[in-house]
Description:
The complex is a heterodimer of chains A (112) and B (116).
Chain A: E1 4-7, E2 10-14, E3 19-25, E4 31-37, E5 44-49, E6 55-58, E7 61-65, E8 71-76, E9 85-93, E10 99-102, E11 106-111
Parallel strand pairs in A: 2-11
Antiparallel strand pairs in A: 1-3, 3-8, 4-5, 4-9, 6-7, 7-8, 9-10, 9-11
Chain B: E1 5-7, E2 10-13, E3 19-24, E4 31-38, E5 42-50, E6 53-57, E7 64-68, E8 74-78, E9 87-94, E10 106-107, E11 111-115
Amino acid sequence: TQLLEQSPQFLSIQEGENLTVYCNSSSVFSSLQWYRQEPGEGPVLLVTVVTGGEVKKLKRLTFQFGDARKDSSLHITAAQPGDTGLYLCAGAFTSGTYKYIFGTGTRLKVLA
Amino acid sequence: KAGVTQTPRYLIKTRGQQVTLSCSPISGHRSVSWYQQTPGQGLQFLFEYFSETQRNKGNFPGRFSGRQFSNSRSEMNVSTLELGDSALYLCASSRTYRELSTGELFFGEGSRLTVL
């Protein structure tokens, strides 16, 4: 059974601090997405990573895909209150039956 | 272009009733997936439709059903509602069915169902 574990579950930091969120699986992803969800809204796609070792940057957000494609990280530099939300990783597994699974989520609160 | 539209946004039902939720995907997207989101279980996959056919189904009881129309709009139905069905129901669209894509989903704002 494929599971996506995210850590930490909760994170409360001050504006201007840096943080890293992790997404880990025991199985190999064929692709992985990161989403951010704000209260009362649906998740919004931030990035897709496909190649092992891939690094993508989106303004202050840096996404990294592990070399073995079993893990990913999201690093936020100089966090702002607007970064507050639920961060979800989601991965596609194509060995055997296709599955697309969401991680357990990291709830981030950035205090002004 | 317009995003994914879900209706209604909020609804309250009582146990035993049934509910129908609607989803209009992004124009040109032919795949619609449905998810249930609760604080305890996170995002759980319900089913995916592509070209009016159900392609994948999650581990939910038969009380949960769906369909897709020729214009790609989709509906999901929950019959004989239980208290545990209270959740945010999210619809997501994509250009094609997910095995053929890298998996990106575009979500609507959700329908929040409360069962009393």
